[in-house]
Design a protein that fits this description.
Elements lengths: L2 H29 L2 H8 L1 H4 L10 H10 L4 E7 L8 E7 L10 E5 L6 E6 L4 H10 L7 H29 L10 H15 L1 H24 L16 H5 L5 H11 L3 E8 L6 E8 L9 E6 L5 E5 L6 H14 L4 H29 L1 H4 L8 H26 L2 H27 L14
Antiparallel strand pairs: 1-2, 1-5, 2-3, 3-4, 5-6, 6-7, 7-8
Helix pairs in contact: 1-5, 1-6, 1-12, 2-5, 5-14, 6-7, 6-8, 7-8, 7-12, 8-11, 14-15
Protein name: Membrane protein
Keywords: Membrane, Transmembrane, Transmembrane helix
Organism: Echinicola rosea
C-alpha cells in the first residue's frame, strides 16, 4: 500500500475519531473497577460480617417478594469476592418507559436482615458501565462504540506500518526534545508500540461487542449457551409466581455441575418453567456467568448443562471477547495493567492531536478562528470532563431516561451541526453562524 495513503488514513481516523477513542479509553479505565467502586461507595449494601450459619435463601426471597407486590423476581445474585450479601433483583410488573427500574434488595445471608434497596439504573456502577459501553446514548450508542473499535483497529495497524520503520532507526525510548511536535511524535511512537498488543485486543473485542447483534444476524449465529423450551407447561402467571426451593436448586447444581461457582439463579417468567443457574468455572478466562445449568422447575431435572471448556473453538472464542476486553480473568493486578494501558491509549489520541495542531499551526494561525494549542486542549478536556460529570449527576439522580434523552439529542444534534457546517462551507465558503469567511486572512 502507498505510504502516503497510509499516512492519510492514520491522520484522518485520528483526527475525526480520536476524541471518541480517548473518551472510551478514559471511561474504560474507570469501568474496569465497577465492582470495587460499588463496594467502596456502598459498604452498607455489599458487606456483611461472616457467621457460622446462614438463614434460608428461599425464605429471604419469599419475604422480599411479599413486601414488593408490584414487582416480580428477575434473579438472585449470590455472594462473591466483592459482594457478601444476597442481591435479590426485581422487575416492575407494570414498567414505566420514562422511569426504567431494575430494583435491587440486599439481604444479609446470616441474619436475613434487609440492608438496603436501590434502583440499579441510578447506581454509580451502572453509570460507569453505560457511559463506556454505549456513551449513555439510548438508540445506537453500542453500535457507535463498535464503530470506534474498528477505527481504533485501523489506527493501530496503520500506526504500526508507519512508525514500525522508525523504531528500527531510532533507539526505543529515546525521546528527542527539539520541539513540541518532535517530542510528541516520539512519545506517540513509543507509547503506540508499547500498547500495540493491548490496542489490537481492545479494538477487535470492542468492535465485536458493539456490533455483536448485527454480526451474529449476518452469519445466522444464535447465543451459544442459550436454551429455549419448545413446550410451555405453565401460564405466564403460574411460571412467574411458582414457589421455588433455592436450597434445593443449589444442592442439585452441586450434584449435576460440581465445578460451577454459582453467581446467579434466574427463573423464567414466560411459561417455560425453567431455572437458569449461571456461574464461573475456576481456571477459565471466559466471560463471567457464561457457564449455565438449566433445571426444570417441577422436578429439578437437567435440560441442558453448558460448560465452555467442553465446547468447540468457535464458542470459546465467542466467550473470551468480553473477558479480554475488560480484563475480568486476571484479578486486580491485570485490571491495574489494563488501566495503565488504557490511559496510554487516550494519550495516543491526545499526542496525535498535538502533532497535527503543531504541524498545521502556521496555516491555522492565519485564520480569524485560530485558537492556540493550550486553550484549545483545555476546552476539549474541560468539555469532556463536564459532559461526564453532568451525565453522572443526572444518571445517579434520575436513572436512564433523562440523561439518555439529553445525550441522544446532543450527539445527533452535534452530527447534524457538523453536516450543516460542512455543506455550508463547501457551497458558501464561510462557517455557519460565524459571519466570517474562511478565506479571509
Amino acid at each position: 500500500m502507498d505510504n502516503k495513503l497510509i499516512w492519510k488514513i492514520h491522520n484522518w481516523v485520528g483526527l475525526y475519531v480520536g476524541v471518541v477513542i480517548a473518551f472510551l479509553s478514559i471511561t474504560g479505565a474507570a469501568a474496569l473497577f465497577r465492582p470495587e467502586v460499588d463496594r467502596l461507595l456502598n459498604p452498607h449494601l455489599t458487606k456483611a460480617a461472616p457467621q457460622p450459619d446462614q438463614v434460608s435463601l428461599t425464605g429471604a426471597v419469599e419475604e422480599v417478594l411479599a413486601t414488593h407486590p408490584d414487582h416480580e423476581l428477575f434473579e438472585v445474585e449470590l455472594p462473591k469476592a466483592y459482594l457478601d450479601t444476597w442481591n435479590i433483583r426485581l422487575r416492575p410488573k407494570d414498567p414505566d418507559p420514562m422511569q426504567p427500574t431494575f430494583w435491587e434488595v440486599f439481604v444479609n445471608p446470616y441474619t436475613g436482615e434487609v440492608l438496603g434497596e436501590r434502583n440499579y439504573f441510578k447506581s454509580f456502577s451502572y453509570f460507569l458501565r453505560n457511559i463506556h459501553v454505549r456513551l449513555y446514548e439510548a438508540q445506537f450508542g453500542r453500535q457507535l462504540v463498535g464503530l470506534a473499535g474498528i477505527a481504533l483497529l485501523i489506527s493501530t495497524i496503520t500506526g504500526l506500518l508507519i512508525y514500525g520503520k522508525f523504531t528500527k532507526k531510532q533507539e526505543f525510548g529515546n525521546i528527542r526534545k527539539k520541539n513540541l511536535r518532535i517530542t510528541q511524535a516520539d512519545l506517540h511512537k513509543f507509547v503506540g508500540i508499547t500498547a500495540l498488543a493491548f490496542n489490537l485486543v481492545i479494538a477487535i473485542t470492542g468492535a465485536w461487542l458493539g456490533l455483536q447483534v448485527y454480526l451474529m444476524q449476518a452469519v445466522g449465529m444464535d447465543q451459544p449457551n442459550g436454551f429455549v423450551r419448545k413446550e410451555k407447561p405453565f401460564t405466564v402467571e403460574e411460571d412467574t409466581n411458582y414457589a421455588l426451593d433455592y436450597e434445593e436448586v443449589l444442592e442439585t447444581t452441586r450434584k449435576e455441575f460440581p465445578a460451577l461457582q454459582v453467581w446467579n439463579i434466574r427463573p423464567t417468567t414466560n411459561g417455560e418453567g425453567i431455572i437458569q443457574v449461571l456461574g464461573n468455572v475456576q481456571g477459565q478466562a471466559y466471560e463471567r456467568r457464561s457457564n449455565k445449568l438449566f433445571l426444570d422447575k417441577k422436578d429439578f431435572s437437567v435440560h441442558r448443562k453448558y460448560n465452555i471448556s467442553e465446547q468447540g473453538l468457535g464458542e470459546k472464542l465467542y466467550y473470551v471477547q468480553e473477558s479480554f476486553h475488560f480484563g475480568d480473568f486476571g484479578g486486580l493486578p491485570l485490571k491495574l495493567l489494563y488501566c495503565v494501558l488504557a490511559i496510554g491509549s487516550s494519550f495516543l489520541s491526545l499526542s496525535g492531536f498535538i502533532i497535527f495542531l503543531e504541524r498545521t499551526k502556521k496555516k491555522r494561525s492565519q485564520k480569524p478562528s485560530y485558537v492556540p494549542l493550550k486553550p484549545l486542549l483545555l476546552r476539549w478536556g474541560a468539555g469532556m470532563a463536564v459532559f461526564i460529570i453532568i451525565v453522572a449527576i443526572l444518571s445517579t439522580n434520575f436513572g436512564i431516561a433523562v440523561p439518555s434523552l439529553l445525550v441522544t439529542t446532543g450527539i445527533y444534534g452535534f452530527f447534524i451541526y457538523l453536516i450543516i457546517k460542512a455543506i455550508w462551507k463547501r457551497y458558501v465558503g464561510a462557517g455557519p453562524f460565524s459571519g466570517t469567511s474562511d478565506s479571509v486572512a
